Amino acid sequence: MKVLIVNGSPRQKGNTACALEELAKQLGDWMNAGRSRVCFLIGSSYGMSEALKARADLRLSVSRMTFPHHLFRVMLAEQIYRAFTILAGTRYHK
After folding, report:
1. Average pLDDT of the chain?
2. What predicted TM-score, i.e. pTM, was given to this entire model?
């Protein structure tokens, strides 16, 4: 299983600011490599333990702004959906 941590600012050490196309490519690469499971962990306002961060295959940052946890789950689901529409080569309305 691949572990992605979605947490914090792109300025934090180890975080990667990522465009949607890059997320789609990464998910596609993992799928092509035979990975069937990906775990997205969303950081809290208190952050995450260093041990958990060390296990991550990718640390992703989507914004320098702070969002409520329940709202961000919906935002992340939308981005995952969009990434898979890119991989499928289908159009997504804006």
Report:
1. 81
2. 0.78
